Amino acid sequence: MIEPRSFPVSLSVDEARSRIVEIATTHILATENVALEAAMGRVLAADVSAPIDVPGFVNSAMDGFAVRGEDLTAAAEKSLRLVGQIFAGGAMASEVLAGTCVRITTGAPLPHGADTVVMKENTRVDGEHIIIATGTAPGANVRPAGEDYQAGDLALRRRMRLTPAQIGVLASFGFVEVKVASRPRAVLFTTGDELVAPGKPLGFGQIYDSNRFSLGGLLQQHDVALLRHARLRDDPVELREALIRAGQDADIIVTSGGVSAGEADFLPRLLADIGEVYLWKVRMRPGMPFLFGRVGGALMFALPGNPVSGVVTFLALVKPALEAMSGAMPRGAALRARLRQAIHKRHARTEFQRALLECDADGTLWATALEKQGSGMLRGVAEADALIVLPETVSEFAVGQVVDVLPLPGWPA
Ligand code: AMP
Ligand code: MG
What we know:
The protein is α/β, with parallel strands linked by helices. The chain is built from seven helices and 29 strands.
């Protein structure tokens, strides 16, 4: 035990999360310029205004014929003499004078004199003339300059995570790079004397180190740059050296294991010794022994070794910290679903259960809790779509009751 305690112990999930976010907000990441090719999912670090009109010129929205609107009559078809053509990216055509038209393709600049495009489907060719059917209003099928963005429009706001369409917008402005928050540099430690790298034979009492991959995957999915991973023994000297070194070059340290109350759980005491403990233990299930603090310049998230606990604490407590450090707006709206079955919760902690999601014909999202809920059973997470959140103060959940949902990576949210 660590005495005296200068940090809170056994917080609610909400208390722990707000304390973590508060501290993470004082560890804001630097910014950098990245090429658009590498900008997917990165957090925009500055507002972006349109430097030019998009589109930059009046152009055709259809393949057809550029005409003068005043030449069209509502009552009868009209014959116009074809005097030229203009294709997207091609040379300018001659002016459209009264009684004439120019063949045009989608995206081509409107020739002088024309203010209307008649779509090809409403025309037919008659020698050197084009017969225009009735029904095209003057001004139709023309895209004004700046219809999408006008120069000076605020186009993208800082703090958003760039989507493919937003990167497309940046490209449409002619930018080749964009200013984003740097990715947090992370060191991942999986700890435990029983751990063996996949590919090697298992000895007595040994297991494969799966957290290196499930936590490594979560880091990857949340835009974290993994500096290195190391598998550490339950040895205070080895742990101390590795953590101090990571505190010198990482923004965050994520550890798994060694954080509960067992004889080989050295991390809480060690962290108090070489750094600072901000909080320990959260009233959640699974994940209760979670420890949060700092070593050197790095925030340290010590996750319990149970494979499910690692995923749950990552999504509930590490992810909000990563978002705060990058300045990102929380991703997506909070998701909720109705329970398919009644649930009785026997403890006064927030429970994160593994569940399947399905949307019914009325658009209601339903959650079905899976059977395998043990914190050591990674199968439950592997087969689930989401975690459902059962608040600590509620013990009886009725069919149809609405609960919060944390989608798991891979669920098409
Ligand atoms: P601990 O938090 O160190 O007490 O570990 C709790 C449980 O999680 C034990 O059954 C460990 O064997 C298991 N465990 C710890 N680390 C890992 C890991 N990296 N991969 C898979 N299981 C682990
Ligand atoms: Mg252990």
